[in-house]
Structure formats: C-alpha cells, structure tokens
Amino acid sequence: MDLSLSASERAFQGEVRTFLEQNLPEWIRAGARATPSVFVEPDIAMEWQRILDEKGWLVYHWPKEYGGTGWTPMQRYIFEKECALADAPSLPVLGLRLLGPVICQFGNEEQKARILPRIRTGDDYWCQGFSEPNAGSDLASLKTRAVFEDGRYVVNGSKIWTTHAHHATHVFCLVRTNSDVKPQEGISFLLIDMRQPGVKVRPIIGMAGDHEVNEVFFDNAEAGPVNLVGEEGQGWTIAKFLLEHERGGSCFGPKLLADISRIRSRAKETADGDGSLLEDPEFARRLARIELEAQGLETTELRILAEMAQGKPPGPKTSIIKLVASSLRQQVDRAALTAAGYYGLNLETQRPLYGNDRPEWLDDEASQLAAPTYLNGRAWTIFGGTNEVQRSIIAKTVLGL
Ligand SMILES: Cc1cc2nc3c(=O)[nH]c(=O)nc-3n(C[C@H](O)[C@H](O)[C@H](O)COP(=O)(O)OP(=O)(O)OC[C@H]3O[C@@H](n4cnc5c(N)ncnc54)[C@H](O)[C@@H]3O)c2cc1C
After folding, report:
1. Domain check: are 294 and 375 in the same one?
2. Pocket test for ligand 1, best of 39, 97, 137 (most atoms within 8 A of CB)
3. What's the CA gap between 308 and 121, in Å, rounded?
4. Higher per-residue confidence, 308 vs 221
5. Of 6, 112, 136, 300, which is least surrounded by CB within 10 A?
6. Closest Cα to atom 2, ligand 1: which residue?
7. SS3 of residue 273 by DSSP
8. What CA–CA distance (Å, rounded) separates 60 from 66?
C-alpha cells in the first residue's frame, strides 16, 4: 500500500487548487463557513453545483458513461481534501451522492435518461424518505405502504427526519409493497414527486434553531410504475448499497484537521488566567489527542481508497469511518466552543448567518458559530445510522464476532 502522492497526483492537486482559487467565489466560501448545519442551503449549494458541472467535475463519483470523471480513488480524495481546505460548501448529497449511484446501478435506461441529467442541473432536488417514527435503526419495520392499483402506486404513511424535504421536488422512498413475506423482502424503492396534493411537509426545528429536517406525510400520494427502481421487493438490497455510499467514500479527515488548526489559532487569542487557552495543559492535551485521531482517520480513509483503487468495494469498513468521523466531529465542535470562550455561550438562532441580513457578531465569526455548530453537530452520531448501529456492523461484518 503506497499512500504518498505520485508526480501525476501532485500535478492534479495543483490543477484542483488553481481551479478553486479562480472559480470558488468568496461569497460561497463565506456562506459555507458560516453554516452551522451539515447541509448548506440551496442558494449556496446550487451555485457551487453549477460551477462544478460546468467544469465537468460535479458527478466525479458516477460511472464515466453517466458523466463521471473517471478519477482514481486517490484523485477523488485529493479533490475533496482541497475543497475542504478551500471552504467549499457541501453539495446536495441526497441526489448527487446517494440517488445518482443507485440509478446508475439499478435504474433502467428510461430512468437513467430522465433522472440523472436533472440531478446534475439541479432541476430536481431530492430528499431521502427512509426513516419513520417507529423505524429508524430498525428500518426493516417501516410501514409506509404503496399499493399498486389502476396503473399506479398509491402511497400512505409518513416519514420523519427528512433532510431538506422543504426544498425538495422529489423524494426517494422505501415503501412496503408486500406484508406477507419477511419484512426486508416486502420493501420497494419508489420515487415520489413532492409537488402533489397527497404530500405534506411539516418542519422540525433543531435545538440550534436550524430548519434542516422535516416530517413528510403521504395521503393517497401517487407514483407511476416508471418510478419504481429495480424490482418490487428489491428495496432492501438497494438501500444497503445506498447506505454504504452514505456512510463512506467521503473524506472527513482533512476538514477535521483544518478545523483543529483554526481552533488552535483561536485558542491562542482566548485569555485563560495569565496566559492563553492554548497554554492550558488540559486543553492542549485534548486538542493534541483529537488531532492524532483525525490523522489516524485520514490514514484509514486513504487505506480504504488504496484498496478501492485495486478494485475492492469499500464494504462495511465504511462504518468505521462513519463512527470515528462522527465522534471526532463532536469533539472538534466541543473544542471550538471552549476556544470561543465567553462569547461562545451566545446562541444565535437567526438564519442565515451569512449575507447582508446576517446578525451583527458579538465577537468574531468563530465565536458566534461555535454554539449553533456544537448543538447541530449532536446529530452526527445519529444520522446515517447511529454509533451503536455502526458498532454492531463492525462487530459482525468487519471483526466477524
Ligand atoms: C439531523 C438528522 C438528519 C436525518 N436525515 C434523514 C433523512 O434525510 N432521511 C431519513 O430517512 N432519515 C434521516 N435521519 C434519520 C436517521 O437515519 C435516524 O434518526 C437514525 O437511523 C436513528 O433512528 P431513530 O431516530 O429512529 O432512533 P432509534 O432507532 O429509535 O434509536 C434510539 C436509540 O437506540 C439505539 N439503538 C437502536 N437499535 C439498537 C440496536 N439494535 N443496538 C444498540 N442500540 C440500538 C440507537 O443507537 C439510539 O441511541 C436523520 C436524522 C437526523 C438526526
């Protein structure tokens, strides 16, 4: 396993850096920096999406025949790392990273032609309707039903924690199409248009004041048979494929390390007794430990990429990435809150925290963002599968226990 950059990879790194310097506008970087939630709002994300699509770098993780770049895993890593270091916003992952690969893998030709281009242009904005009030970790117990009658599916039930459903035009859903078989075998993967009378969205405001997630209700919502992905009953297989993409294949290490470096600079400015917070042995030790763990995470991410470069699938090891990255994210946010000192105690709930209408900072931007980011980040160890669920997957499928 060789993790060092080759000459051509260094050249690629230079190309990405130059592109970012020349094409990622400061207002987008500022908006991304001042977003406490995991997902940035569409005003920023869609503009960045457009810029990347114009360059041909938007769907780098899709197969080449559908617009992918054909990058090696290491090139993908370099690109994501440089984006993180340049404060690029996260992209709308639900369509680009989750549904896109599902359609490439399981969709029929008509679906590929209809759906993939509209994900790229942003004409369709997708959300993910998996979790239900009584089906989160135990997803197989989901109850939202889709009954095929008069040439279309009629859907009834509800979903919860649906990220950005209030922005979405469409939702990809797991629905029950058969109750007479094993729970997993009766689930199908259905695409539903949100812009119909049978679909209602109710906001859930998080404790930091962000509107990121929602409840979604289906009351005789309709979906034509062309919106069934794969076969009836194949939903569980498709969901497992999708969750592997959701949990891994991302590069968390670089962003965590960049944030740790910013916290170090901030802590130098924060008074603590006669010196600065950075001189406090307990804080310095905590930061050093997090940094070492983030470096370890980065190495593990590179190791998985090196295996992928040899044709091996990322597999359940992505659960290790999700588990460690989520825990580290929360520790980094906590250190940022400590470094913000007194002003970090202020919880600004007005949104957005960027642009002309943003609230006046009481102190600097980092202090003002510390509390909302910390509170919002509590969700890291829940979404995409909780830490406990990841540990069970690691125990069973990675360690063979
Ligand atoms: C911010 C945010 C965004 C989200 N976005 C989406 C989205 O866009 N689409 C979507 O479909 N879902 C989304 N989710 C839902 C998320 O996937 C679920 O919250 C998650 O899977 C946990 O399910 P639950 O909330 O029902 O908790 P539960 O499954 O009820 O779990 C409650 C507690 O019990 C523990 N537990 C449960 N089962 C086990 C077990 N077998 N062994 C050990 N411990 C266990 C859990 O770890 C947890 O601590 C989002 C959640 C959050 C917080």
Report:
1. yes
2. 137
3. 29
4. 221
5. 6
6. 383
7. coil
8. 10
pTM of the predicted protein model? 0.95
Same domain, 252 and 228: no
**Domain stop point among 91, 106, 136:** 91
Q: Is the predicted pLDDT of residue 248 greater than 60, yes or no? A: no
- Split into its structural domains, the chain has a count of 3
Per-residue pLDDT at 3 = 65
Distance 390 CA to ligand 1 centre (A): 11
How many residues comprise the chain? 401
* CA-388 nearest atom, ligand 1: 47
Encode burial over 226-265: b for 16+ CB neighbours within 10 A, e otherwise: ebbbbebbbbbbbbebbbbbbbbbbbbbbbbbebbeebbe
Do 150 and 227 lie in a common domain? yes
Task: Give catalytic residues, as residue numbers.
Answer: 246
> Given 206, 233, 260, which residue is the final one in a domain?
233
Inform me whether the pLDDT recorded for 244 exceeds 80. Answer: no
* One domain for residues 78 and 142: no
